[in-house]
Amino acid sequence: MSSPAPAEKLTKKQLKADKPTWCPGCGDFSVLASFFNIVQKLEIPHEKIVCVSGIGCSSRFPYFVNSHGIHFIHGRALPLATGISLSRPDLHVFVFGGDGDGYSIGGNHLTHAARKNVNLSYVVMDNQVYGLTKNQTSPTTPIGRKSKTDPRGAIDRPINPMAQLVASGATFIARTHTTQIKHMDEMFERAILHPGFAVVETLSECSMFYPGAFDAGNPRKGGRFELVDEQSRNMESTAEAMTLAEETETDFPGKFGVYLECKRPTKNDLERAWIDDERARVGDTSDRDLMRERFDAMR
Amino acid sequence: MANSTASATPDTLKNAVIRLAGYSQDGIQSVGAFLAQLAGSTASEVMTYMTIPATISGGASIFQVHLGSGEVLHPGDQADMLVAFYQDSYDNHLDSLRTGGICIYDSDQVEKVLDERGITHIGVPFTSATIEALGGSAKNRGKNIFVLGMLCAIYELDREKMSAIIAKKFGGKSEGVLRNAMIAFDTGYAWPIQSIQHMPMAPGESKGKKRISADGNTMLALGLIAGGCRYGAAYPITPWTSIMELLRSEFPKYGGSFIQCEDELAAVCMAIGMSYAGHLAVTGSSGPGLALKSEALGYASMAEIPLVVVNVQRGGPSTGLPTSVEQSDLMQAIYGSHGDAPRVVLAPRSVKDCFYTAVRACQIAKEYSTPVIILSDQAIATRIEAFTEPDLDKWWVDYELDQSEKGPEFKPYPLEKMTRHSPPGSPSTEGKYPVVTGLEHDEWGHPSGNPKNHAAMTAKRREKLIKLSHSLPAPSFHGDYEGDLLFVGWGSTYGPVKEATQALRDKGYKIGCMHIHNLHPLRAGLGDIFGRYRHVLVPEMNDSGVYGYGQLATLLRAKLCDPRIQSFNKTEGLGFRVVELVDEAEKILAV
């Protein structure tokens, strides 16, 4: 979202609402902390913040933020947020959800929000497991991992969210790890400032049902947190982004940072341009008289 | 029933039913539309009826026009005139002509058969006459306009006005197109038909009011705009689609937009997002699409989001009869979701009524913070009627986005008051902002599974509909206020039911007919009226079901515990004919 209007700087206290219901050690706490950091830093007016979510542990997010919020049905946060963003371009629309909500039941909407380049920020807290329903296989669960729905180990190939986002036409795609708060802050800040559909995939461990899932990306657990080298890359190249995306499969955890950052007209701008054009053509005619003219043509 | 012998004066017709039968690519729909538009601009009443095949192009198709100088209530049981373009149109539709009717057929295409019902056959070479008039390559083009010219001459319709309508229609296209249309029209108009007299239509009475003609989907779309709706989202499905097409191009003129979505689920969710954001939004579909929207509808009910949902009903479950009429989504509209999810259901009864129903749906959705479903149907959606232009000074709702500051007392879900959301962008004096949710919540919007709270919130969502039921206008009523039989109808059966009522009264029975506009909640006190009749008959275009009652009849029996409520059902994908209703009523009255 480009150039947020200056406002009185919010404090963390002002941004906090209900106490999070997440389990101790859940990666989602860090996402919440990081979100507070960036909203404060960017001085987004309090009343202009809207938090949108679907269903799942991470989708409880709006209750924990003192802002306008809407907790919606499973998998449909993106079309809901699209409706908010397109009809209210003055708002800063944030969507929060998990891998099941965003990549499985809501997979279709992800593709279409990306191709439409709707102006909003989408944070996926990917824990590679269904947590709220207590340990079933998710669309990103790796092959072989045992769960209640795959007692002999997952057999379906997991989806590659990064590759899917590249293919769908998202204009800002980033990837981070909830143990790396500074990096997460940077990714959120850039996502919020990006005009268009911005997705941040955060590897957020489920401490209850899939502990250790992302140790490979956590140096403190012996993993590597390797950054995308933005200087030597063409950040607008979908081919290069796709190559990086494939690394997350072949050489997990792959690299962290911005995979793709390109400019394309947003759906918001295109719709607005049409409206402005029509309004200019209509001129001073009131809405009611416009309808009267329409009736005249039907006589 | 249309009856051309009931003349206004010895020399003029009060009404005429003309059936055009051909293939959809011949433009017979546009002949009907031209006649309807002429009727609209000449103070006549008109109602059209069409069938289209559920295929991309081609296929047999009919367009029936009922012209009248008085009230026209239905498309006509039987045709006074059949215009047959092909052999199969002739073979399949000759039976639709009344005894003594007129059949005009394309003598280049049709072999007539001997008919014993006193039908006047007139062969006119539509094809070769048009080719000759327009020059070699015309082939099938222009036949429809040729026929239009012929009909204008036979019924002595206003030739100048019709020429103007044609000029307006084709004016935007190339000069040749308009020239050809005018040549075809004039050729048809001048075509010598010796075997019948001209049958001039009696003029209608406009009473100084402006009149327009349109189909139901158009009026529904315009009603939404008049009701203050500026945003919406949907997915295409017959016969809903033309509403979304119109809104897509109309909303931007009024400062809004309409979004085509990837699926029905996205569509309803996007519309909920727009409504949550402070605009009253619309989504719509036809039966199968409404089924897909069910979960989100439950959410809108739980979260108390104002939303207008249009369902243009078609036939059958599943893909069913996509281009035919039925009234079998009533239960789905009222109950189709999970949990107790109250919502409002309204049904327009005519094209004109589509406009007013849409405005009222917008008003109710906002006033009661609830989803409102408009149950239209394929017959109303596609047919054209002429009627008095709606009075916008009375029916216009100014569009507004409420961004007022919310004080410390603000609760998103107050138990004692109607829910009024604080859309994003509204500041809060205390800095506390509301969360709108589908989880059961307390008055402040916090999730709450407390048993007493759930009972209280469930009652809150129910009670506001009960409050609405006490403020609803009385259903429209015609005929005798007590007596032998009461018809209770809804939706597009209005015309035939009203006419059947009159036909039965003419035969000496004491008959009333009530048409229910507000299907859910029903108006309080409805049952008092039922008690004044010996029989209550509910004609519906849906199945009699396992227990022997149609969908509205089932609801009325459940609500009123009145065993006299009987069903009369039809599931042919066609509307009721007046004669069917009269026969059924007489069968019951004979007992």
Can you describe this structure?
- The complex is a heterodimer of chains A (299) and B (591).
- Chain A has 299 residues and is α/β, with parallel strands linked by helices.
- Chain A is built from eleven helices and seven strands.
- Chain A is 37% helix and 14% strand.
- In chain A, helix 5 packs across helix 6 (107-116).
- Chain B is an alpha/beta fold.
- Helix content of chain B is 36%, strand content 20%.
- Chain B has 19 helices and 21 strands.
- Chain B has helices spanning 28-41, 87-93, 126-134, 143-154, 159-170, 175-190, 216-226, 241-250, 264-276, 287-303, 330-335, 351-368, 378-382, 392-395, 451-471, 494-506, 527-530, 551-560, 578-590, and strands at residues 15-23, 45-51, 60-68, 79-84, 97-106, 120-124, 211-215, 231-234, 257-260, 281-285, 307-313, 344-346, 371-377, 384-388, 435-437, 476-479, 483-489, 511-515, 518-520, 533-540, 565-569.
- In chain B, helix 8 links the parallel strand 8 (231-234) and strand 9.
- At the A-B interface, strand 1, strand 2, helix 4, helix 6 and helix 10 of A face strand 7, helix 7, helix 9, helix 10 and strand 15 of B.
